[in-house]
Amino acid sequence: MSVHPAPVEAYVREHARRTLGELQDLLRIPSISTLPAHRADMDRALDFLEARLRDAGCEHIERLVSPRHPNGMPVLYADWLHAPGAPTVLFYGHYDVQPPDPLNEWLTPPFEPTVRDGNLVARGAADDKGQMYAHIKGVEALRAVSGKLPVNVRFLIEGEEEVGGETIEHVVRQQLGKLACDCVVVSDTAMFAPGMPSLDVGLRGMVYAEIEMRGAERDLHSGLYGGVAPNPFEALARVITGLKGQDGKILIPGFYDRVVPPAAAELAAWKRLPFSEQQYRQEEVRAPALTGETGYSVFERTWSRPTLDVHGMPGGFTGPGSKTVIPARASAKISMRLVPNQQPAEIYASFSEAVKKLTPTGLVSSVHLWNTADPIVVDTSNRFVRAGVEALKATFGGEPVFVRSGGSVPVVALFTTVLKAPVVMMGFGLPDDGLHSPNEKFAVENFYGGIRAVADFLQRLAPK
Amino acid sequence: MSVHPAPVEAYVREHARRTLGELQDLLRIPSISTLPAHRADMDRALDFLEARLRDAGCEHIERLVSPRHPNGMPVLYADWLHAPGAPTVLFYGHYDVQPPDPLNEWLTPPFEPTVRDGNLVARGAADDKGQMYAHIKGVEALRAVSGKLPVNVRFLIEGEEEVGGETIEHVVRQQLGKLACDCVVVSDTAMFAPGMPSLDVGLRGMVYAEIEMRGAERDLHSGLYGGVAPNPFEALARVITGLKGQDGKILIPGFYDRVVPPAAAELAAWKRLPFSEQQYRQEEVRAPALTGETGYSVFERTWSRPTLDVHGMPGGFTGPGSKTVIPARASAKISMRLVPNQQPAEIYASFSEAVKKLTPTGLVSSVHLWNTADPIVVDTSNRFVRAGVEALKATFGGEPVFVRSGGSVPVVALFTTVLKAPVVMMGFGLPDDGLHSPNEKFAVENFYGGIRAVADFLQRLAPK
């Protein structure tokens, strides 16, 4: 069953080319929040989105900043509140993107969006510009064909998602009245498979830290001092192998103490998902072998088991060729993904303590916390989640499945705890979209599907 | 006893300001051989040295290149061969310098030479421009005051020392006739202490390699794939800890098999050297503790024991902030210092084999060899080494000591084996000169001392 599908369907079809062109314009703006040089691009992305929200009929368009972070990236707010007595839906998305490096692995430039094999290829195509823009276009379509919306709508589009910024949290806590809503829609996740629409009901949390290891006070020549000088990279290697065993087990004392395994029914449902581990390895992960804890399935290892990864080890000599330096210091960027009910603050404390204990004689380590996110599990029994299921079914066909995601969307925990609103995670992406990787893509078909699903979802929430 | 000291002494004093100014001009040229962008600076350094060699009375000035490395950095040749029947001395030095990074740790810019506390501070001040330039000025002084030289002299000044380039080897092998000599003088090492002139009679060899570790074919998001994706940094950490134990022992099978310990007399002489381990740690290494193999002295650990160091680990995300990437690949730049009679080719083969065995499931490693150097020990019984001892004693005062150096000067092995000439390693630097580090320095007094020692040395070789 779909609700009034024909007019929206026709509108989306009629405006397909313009809509895709607009998204391409947005993707051309390199709004990279981690690189200060792109500050002006952040503003350009905001200008663009303001204009499109206005086109969609939104009002009260405003750039919200936190007084505690005056130089933070503004959160874009807009609303349409002319459906008294009807529920209010808050759409969340983000306009910032990851850096595109390594640049040389892109087949086409990351900020020159290109349609290839039915996919729009660009940095941010799926994460999250394409999915966030589907919200705006879904509202636009519904309002265009009906002259109004069946429910009240708010938009909250942030610019620090990829950098773990705090502006969104401060803004949400400050503007509780302005953000009152009955549910939050987040589209920053992926479907389980093409043609298998999914609702995410679990997200892993995160602690992202950086260990700095300091040996001598200055860089030393490895010929003259090799044999006596402490080597920060060697020390970091010992810390890393001390934090995580070859069997994938994290060796930080107490690390697993609070881990709550999924219910038997949830584990059983995961077993029914169509999945070939061999195909997943060969076509998606594309690695010689999968790694991780023995005794746990791929779904458990990526959705319901915590893990630890090293992302980069700055310091020393990294150019081509050889330089015989024992660097004074080196770092390791390390993150841990957390699952219910691990607590980031507690895990960070245990991690810091473990690093201290593992630091070899001759060196001093310090740990810097970059950011954290709470792990969450969503209650699936409310009407908004059910409306999401129906909208996805009507739009994409196939019975939607409840899955989890290994990634972290810190705001989902924020909305859950501060706005007290259920979060409906309708992801329009696909598992191989290559978020944060070269050649990130978003299926053009899923972009249009996302627009139709948003319009359908809102219609289902209209008061009877 | 010094030989005809007065005129040379007076000349050096009279021309002190000009001489130091010339060295500063040379140090202003950022002739960094590891960075292709500095190619034009290499040419400027060559132009400068050609002019100064001509001023010193040299002839046959020529830039030698290897047909096998047409884009290699030329080796500068010059000679003065008007002392028939007298020995021929070949002076070796290099005009290339290390990159100056980390730039922010320099108190004054690395290529704006500054005299501070009696030291000339600049990249290359001691390694090797200042020491090499003392050769040229020593020859100039002696010729200026005598109208001629008592021996024949050749200069060979290369531009790929810091990059481990092969041009010098090819040039030496091709130009055997042109380079015929009775001894080679190399000043690219340090005195044991201020006022304690030293002759280096041992150098460690080296194998410098880079391990590339490849996991998935593309960068992956650590949220979505953390728990199954192979992590190249984690794998490198396991390889590094598998190559070297926490006790400093290198765990590569067979690694120590050919190591020849120093003779009992040599070890006994090292014990007599004035040395405070605590002071060395606090004032020179400046680290919380010294590291390395237990049961060996600092001299043994840095001069006669092999070791292994990590210099940099390129790959992944190294910018400020957090990026949740599991990189497709990462590298580790690793060098091993070798001692007599370890063989670089054999060690490299064992290292590669060990890396292969230590590579965890899910990843593929490959090893690239950047460069090697043979370890050497010099015979101290010939007249050139004895003349060196006398020249240092006359110039710097104090009884010269025979020491070794932990560093590698690959050409020393080349001269020994190809030119069959004894190598006299007269170092004018000091142990805390900070080679390859920020704020590299060369004592101005040692620069002038080097000039006088070179002139003195040549006079001692005059036929009776």
Molecular structure report:
- The structure is a homodimer of 464-residue chains.
- Chain A is of the alpha+beta class.
- Chain A has two domains: 5-203 and 375-460, Aminopeptidase, CATH 3.40.630.10; 205-264 and 307-373, 2-Layer Sandwich (Alpha-Beta Plaits), CATH 3.30.70.
- Helix content of chain A is 36%, strand content 22%.
- Chain A is built from 14 helices and 18 strands.
- Chain A has helices at residues 5-14, 16-27, 39-55, 125-146, 167-174, 222-225, 232-243, 264-272, 277-285, 298-304, 344-358, 383-396, 410-419, 444-460, and strands at 59-64, 75-80, 88-94, 114-116, 119-121, 152-158, 183-186, 198-203, 205-214, 220-221, 307-316, 325-326, 329-338, 364-373, 376-377, 401-405, 423-426, 441-443.
- In chain A, the strands form four sheets. In chain A, strands 1, 2, 3, 6, 7, 8, 15, 16 and 17 form a nine-stranded mixed β-sheet that branches.
- In chain A, helix 4 crosses helix 14 (444-460).
- The longest helix of chain A is centred in the first third of the chain and has 22 residues, at 125-146.
- The mean pLDDT of chain A is 94.
- Chains A and B meet through strand 9, strand 10, helix 6, helix 7 and helix 10 of A and strand 9, strand 10, helix 6, helix 7 and helix 10 of B.
State the helicity of chain A in percent bands: 25-40%
Terminal CA distance of chain A reads 16 Å
Average pLDDT figure of chain A: 94
| Largest interface in this structure | A-B, 99 and 99 residues
Give the number of domains of chain A.
Answer: 2
Q: Show unreliable segments of chain A.
A: none
Report the sheet-strand fraction of chain A. Answer: 15-25%
Q: Care to count the β-strands of chain A?
A: 18
Examine the coordinates and then state which fold CATH places here, giving the name of the CATH topology of the largest domain in chain A: Aminopeptidase
Major pleated sheet of chain A: 9 strands, mixed
CA gyration radius of chain A, whole angstroms: 23 Å
CATH architectural group of the largest domain in chain A: 3-Layer(aba) Sandwich
Structural class by secondary-structure content of chain A: alpha+beta
For this structure, the quaternary state is: homodimer
Silhouette of chain A: globular
- In CATH terms, the superfamily of the largest domain in chain A is Zn peptidases
Top-tier CATH class of the largest domain in chain A? Alpha Beta
Number of helices of chain A: 14
